[in-house]
Amino acid sequence: MYDFNYEKPASLAAAVATLTGDADAKALAGGMTYIPVLKMRLAKPSAIVDLSAAGLSGITVTASSVTIGAMTTHDTVAKNAQVRAAIPALAALAGGIGDEAVRHRGTIGGSLANNDPAACYPSAVLALGATIKTNKRSIAADDYFQGMFTTALEDGELIVSVEFPIPQKAAYEKFRNPASRYAIVGVFVAKFANGARVAVTGASQGGVFRHEGMEKALSANFSPDATAGVTTDTDNMNQDIHASAEYRAHLVGVVTKRAVAKA
């Protein structure tokens, strides 16, 4: 690592002030992505602003929504009885991220701010139509994700919490890389009174996306058989040593069907 100053502000306001006052300072959530970046000397921040004491963790559940603080760990979400009762698919997703060490350190806010194209949480946020709340504003999920590792967050803007509406039914299924446990293809499906939402992660070069064909089919008939005739365009699919573009496109259909069956 390069040398840097370490700051651990005791409030959100103090964290924002530190980051705003130093253009080269970087926020640190769980560190599951940024610490390896620092170790490999791929970044040289002037200061690291640790958000763990800024009061951004916690879970609130009402009759219509689940709100999760940005610094809430995956393990906490996975084991929270209220989340498991309100949106069991969200708790199950959190419990399948990485390994136990990652789940005890990684946070929902860190995952969403990084927006890794194979991360699990973005699919839940997009499929459930969640609202990302920052220190400046509220951002709809459909407006938040803007491509691989790219979001609507502006300089000096930190995620404070994420509010999820409670669906009638939902499920997450992923075809995982056996080593990293990242999604080669992951699909989150959610049924609401006004129709279905389907979000796919791991498959596209542009990161997480909504699958309009699947949504149309499942809004008309929320059953595994409804997805049988729906195809996925291969033009923007990821292609690497783990799976070709064609294979990923095929997996989208397979994994969506499994998710609907689970829901």
Question: Would you summarize the structure shown here?
Answer:
This protein is α+β, with helices and mostly antiparallel strands and 263 residues long. It has helices spanning 12-21, 34-39, 74-79, 81-86, 88-95, 100-105, 108-114, 121-127, 141-144, 212-220, 245-262, and strands at 5-7, 25-28, 47-50, 59-61, 65-69, 131-134, 138-140, 159-165, 169-176, 183-192, 195-201, 209-210.
Overview of the molecule:
With 263 residues, the protein is α+β, with helices and mostly antiparallel strands. It has 3 domains: 5-49, Uridine Diphospho-n-acetylenolpyruvylglucosamine Reductase, domain 2 (2-Layer Sandwich); 59-165, Uridine Diphospho-n-acetylenolpyruvylglucosamine Reductase, domain 3 (2-Layer Sandwich), CATH 3.30.465; 169-262, Enolase-like, domain 1. Helix content is 33%, strand content 23%. The strands form 3 sheets. A 5-stranded antiparallel beta sheet has the order 4-5-8-6-7. A 4-stranded antiparallel beta sheet has the order 9-10-11-12, with helices on both faces. The longest helix is centred in the last third of the chain and has 18 residues, at 245-262. It starts with a strand and ends with a helix. The mean pLDDT is 96.
